[in-house]
Design goal:
This protein is α/β, with parallel strands linked by helices and 518 residues long. It contains 17 helices and 23 strands. Bound molecules: nicotinamide-adenine-dinucleotide (NAD). Nicotinamide-adenine-dinucleotide (NAD) is lined by residues 168-173, 195, 197-198, 227-228, 231, 246-248, 250-251, 254, 269-272, 303, 403, 405, 431, 470, 472, 476. It comes from Coemansia brasiliensis.
Length: 518
């Protein structure tokens, strides 16, 4: 295991997490088990969001390279689908070990390219690792049903892989989201072409190296890069049977429509606006700490980040205390000790968030905490936005209507739980929603009436563990079969049902029957 060995060696000398070298090179393609320099004429620069230093240049894969990736994945599928489920299970066990052993290396890559703080970057890897661990259970997931119809007849179902599948990833979880996709695809017997985000492909490349190291055969996982043209290829090439997408609404709708028009299965997780209701009977300390962490952690760039807090009745008095907690969070470079949130991904994303904050103020909301002027002395060039709290917003305001995807919490005041539920249920998104309360009856009402796919009760970011599935709904999801867990296995497999008849030697078979067998 090359990375593992390198890292162990380095650990003796390092007193803090390893940072990648300042010199950069071009990100390679990973096709047929080899890391290949692309022949692309166009590249996309990846800059460290804290420093603006160029980390790498990502090629826009050429048509020939994309074709080669599909050819490699198609050829590899012939053998890979014939491997026993036990050997694929073994690969998942080996891969989870390799990821665990290289956790710091993966997290460092994330900090350098994506900007999140080191401990949170390890959480990014860990949540993906849990999916790999769950795929070590593939022998159970792949089981079908069997019915003995009569003494000489059986009907049974088997789950079969689809063939070549593709994954298209967003920037905000450079390890976790690739790990939602390819381990499930591979464990079920498919081969995969992955397109990491062009803004932070490093973690996916390290994962590809680990796949090589644990002996996943050439062509079973391939990585291509690029943006629009690469996506167009992955959603239309006839060798690709299914497309998994996670990202924003615009790309997601386009990809879902294009993939399905080309006859492919598609699952697409899109944008979000996640609400938390705070009832006056909640444990105040717990609720305010949880909301603060979930709104501002990862600089608000999580699809399950809490972006709206609805304070009900007397709980409205707690908003100033929330501001105090948010003020205590430290904004800094991701490798700095005690940093709570790092920079946003690009200067453009930062500028967009700033404009939305301004719009809130212009439309009459109160800006209780304005992170636009945050100073981060060691990283003057970084895309930093401090925690921002917009209070007394309404659902008509732009800051509420749009997904800001930054460390910005919009607070709304209502009188009753019913009003809070109406607000959430009127929102077009349905990724996650939480309630903070000590009342079992209120929690039960919320759970049953809220129109969101992932519900938290005194839990701010209710992302399901991998033995469940990621179940965003409404405008946060297109498709009908969710990511990872049982649903993920179903997405990447199709059922075959076999009916067999083994008659006795002396059975009376002299006459043909023409009616429908029953
Ligand atoms: P994005 O949509 O800009 O990019 C995602 C992928 O789509 C990238 O690989 C990119 O190359 C490709 N892409 C972008 N624009 C495209 C276009 N016009 N045509 C074809 N392909 C295109 O998303 P992002 O900014 O990287 O990620 C942030 C978004 O992802 C947020 O909206 C967030 O809510 C969402 N997200 C959702 C979930 C979820 O599970 N619901 C999880 C993570 C992120």
């Amino acid at each position: 295991m090359k990375i593992l060995t390198l890292y162990k060696h380095a650990q003796h000398k390092l007193h803090r997490p390893p940072q990648l070298s300042r010199s950069f090179s071009t990100t390679k393609l990973f096709i047929n088990g080899e890391f290949i320099e692309s022949q692309a004429a166009d590249h996309i620069e990846v800059r460290n969001p804290a420093t603006q230093q160029v980390v790498t240049r990502v090629p826009k894969s050429t048509p020939q390279e994309l074709d080669e990736a599909a050819r490699s994945a198609s050829l590899a599928f012939r053998e890979w689908r014939r491997t026993s489920v036990l050997s694929r299970q073994r690969k998942m066990l080996d891969l989870q070990h390799a990821i665990r052993a290289n956790m710091d290396q993966l997290a460092s890559s994330i900090v350098n390219e994506q900007g999140k703080v080191f401990s949170d970057a390890k959480g990014d890897v860990m949540r993906g690792l849990q999916v790999v661990e769950d795929m070590a259970n593939i022998t159970h997931y792949m089981q079908g049903n069997k019915l003995e119809v009569s003494s000489d007849m059986d009907t049974y179902s088997v789950r079969e892989p689809l063939g070549v599948v593709a994954g298209i990833c967003p920037f905000n979880f450079p390890a976790m989201i690739p790990l939602w996709m390819f381990p499930v695809a591979l464990a079920t017997g498919n081969t995969c072409i992955l397109k990491p985000s062009e803004r932070d492909p490093g973690a996916a490349m390290l994962l590809a190296q680990l796949c090589n190291d644990v002996g996943i055969p050439p062509g079973v996982l391939n990585i291509v890069h690029g943006s629009h043209d690469t996506v167009n290829f992955l959603t239309s090439d006839s060798r690709i049977r299914a497309v998994s997408f996670v990202g924003g609404d615009k790309a997601g709708k386009y990809i879902y429509e294009r993939a399905t028009q080309h006859g492919k299965r598609c699952q697409a997780n899109l944008g979000a606006k996640n609400h938390a209701i705070v009832l006056p009977d909640a444990n105040k300390e717990h609720a305010l700490n949880a909301i603060s962490g979930a709104a501002f952690g990862a600089a608000g760039q999580r699809c399950m980040a809490l972006s709206v807090a609805i304070f009900v009745g007397k709980a409205q008095d707690w908003v100033p205390e929330l501001v105090t907690r948010a003020q205590q969070l430290r904004v800094d470079g991701g490798f700095e000790a005690d940093a709570d949130l790092g920079p946003m991904i690009t200067p453009e994303a930062l500028q967009r968030a700033k404009l939305l904050i301004q719009s809130a103020s212009d439309e009459g909301a109160r800006l209780l905490l304005d992170g636009r002027g945050v100073q981060v002395p060691k990283y003057p060039q970084g895309n930093f936005l401090g925690p921002t709290i917009i209070d007394q917003a309404t659902s008509q305001m732009q800051c509420y209507q749009e997904e800001i995807f930054g460390p910005v919490l919009t607070c709304i005041h209502v009188d009753t739980l019913d009003q809070a539920l109406d607000l959430i249920n009127s929102n077009r998104y349905g990724n996650g929603a939480s309630i903070f309360t000590r009342s079992g009856a209120s929690a039960r009402k919320f759970q049953s009436e809220v129109e969101a796919g992932q519900v938290g009760i005194n839990v701010p970011i209710p992302v399901p563990l991998p033995m469940f599935s990621f179940t965003g709904n409404k405008a946060s999801f297109l498709g009908d079969t969710n990511f990872y867990g049982r649903s993920g296995v179903n997405f990447y497999t199709q059922l075959k049902t076999v009916t067999s008849l083994w008659r006795k030697q002396d059975a009376d078979d002299r006459q043909a029957t023409v009616h429908m067998p029953t």
